[in-house]
């Protein structure tokens, strides 16, 4: 591949803006997060607490605060470092969210967790568990979202909602991945113009990886083959991290794709050979060619080639219109973004 000096400026400015839409950019506009209660997220664990052990799992609802802020408050109450507090994932600040935290209380008296309660925090439950809560240790998140001040044809929204329900949406990494100029900082880090702290380095690596994935996915959306099988595709079994390469003997691939049993995948860049082959491998290599700085940086950082589903299917999608508002509820698996679902439905802006 030809090595370029830098990532295209337009991508650095807004990595998601240029990504293709399945049905074209929506013509209906709306306002998102006018109030924190317009974006409600409930975290669902992928396991049942042990009800025993040296860790306490705290189930907490918060309003208008981010995850790290609450982790620091828990650490202060427990007399621990912030990094000793476990949680499965980051939650939006401008929202009302419930999530789980873990606290190691081995050899110490358990604090009175009700001290955390305030106008913006409510401790819902505290239960014992044997292990620290790790990132990604959740089945997914349930969303209840209200879009306000809608302007445009309601029938157009209904058609898009039906498409999202039946076909899913491109599984882009959402705008949160690229906030605070994470992609620009990633390129500066790879060029040795920036020496970030450990947690910042992780954010910048994730932003770079996410950008490359989004570029590949956007190209396939433009070509109308993001949810179909191409020669050389790597498939992911729905609801799992299991991937496989179809063979000529796999005559039911088209049917399984239609039944949402499997999904095509795209690359999460790193060291090693691409898992794809033939047409798909050529497409992926050609797409990332202008972003060689990011590819090289990710490989030097030691990340390994992985795959991610190109398709995201919101489960239990329901909607209700009222006056100039639209209320949505749906469930998404861990690692996916509600905002990439919303962008296929309305052209929203956030207050």
Please characterize this protein's 3D structure.
Helix content is about 25%, strand content about 25%. It is an alpha+beta fold. It has 2 domains: about 190 residues, TruD, insertion domain (Pseudouridine synthase); about 90 residues, TruD, catalytic domain (Pseudouridine synthase), CATH 3.30.2350.20. The longest helix has 25 residues. About 35% of the residues are buried.
How are the elements arranged and paired?
Blueprint: H1 9-13, E1 29-32, E2 39-45, E3 55-63, H2 67-78, E4 86-87, E5 96-104, E6 121-129, E7 138-151, H3 154-167, E8 169-170, H4 182-190, H5 198-222, E9 235-237, E10 243-244, H6 253-258, E11 262-268, H7 278-288, H8 292-300, E12 306-309, E13 311-312, E14 315-322, E15 325-333, H9 338-342, E16 347-350
Parallel strand pairs: 1-16, 2-5
Antiparallel strand pairs: 1-7, 2-7, 3-5, 3-6, 4-5, 7-15, 8-13, 9-10, 9-11, 11-12, 14-15
Helix pairs in contact: 4-5, 4-8, 5-7, 5-8
């Amino acid at each position: 591949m030809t090595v370029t000096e830098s990532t295209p400026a337009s991508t650095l400015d807004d990595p998601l803006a240029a990504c293709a839409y399945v049905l074209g950019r929506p013509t209906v506009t709306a306002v998102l997060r006018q109030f924190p209660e317009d974006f409600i997220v409930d975290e669902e664990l992928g396991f049942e607490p042990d009800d025993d052990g040296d860790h306490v799992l705290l189930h907490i609802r918060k309003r208008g605060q981010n995850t790290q802020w609450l982790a620091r408050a828990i650490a202060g109450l427990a007399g621990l470092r912030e990094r000793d507090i476990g949680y499965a994932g980051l939650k939006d600040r401008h929202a009302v969210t419930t999530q789980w935290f873990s606290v190691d209380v081995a050899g110490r008296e358990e604090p009175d967790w009700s001290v955390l309660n305030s106008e913006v925090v409510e401790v819902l439950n505290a239960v014992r568990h044997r292990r620290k809560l790790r990132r990604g240790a959740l089945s997914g998140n349930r969303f209840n979202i209200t879009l306000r001040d809608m302007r445009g044809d309601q029938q157009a929204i209904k058609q898009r909602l039906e498409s999202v329900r039946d076909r899913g949406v491109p599984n882009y990494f959402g705008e949160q991945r690229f906030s605070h100029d994470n992609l620009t900082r990633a390129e500066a880090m790879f060029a040795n113009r920036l020496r970030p702290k450990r947690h910042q380095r992780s954010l910048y690596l994730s932003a770079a990886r996410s950008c490359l994935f989004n570029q590949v996915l956007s190209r396939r959306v433009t070509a109308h083959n993001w949810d179909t099988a191409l020669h050389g595709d790597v498939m992911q079994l729905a609801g799992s991290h299991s991937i496989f390469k179809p063979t000529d003997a796999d005559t039911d691939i088209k049917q399984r794709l239609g039944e949402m049993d499997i999904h095509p995948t795209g690359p999460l860049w790193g060291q090693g050979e691409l898992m794809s082959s033939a047409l798909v491998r050529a497409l992926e290599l050609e797409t990332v060619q202008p972003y060689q700085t990011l590819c090289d940086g990710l490989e030097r950082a030691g990340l390994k080639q992985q795959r991610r589903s190109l398709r995201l299917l919101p489960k239990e999608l329901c909607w209700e219109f009222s006056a100039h508002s639209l209320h949505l509820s749906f469930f998404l698996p861990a690692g996916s973004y509600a905002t990439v679902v919303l962008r296929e439905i309305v052209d929203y802006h956030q207050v």
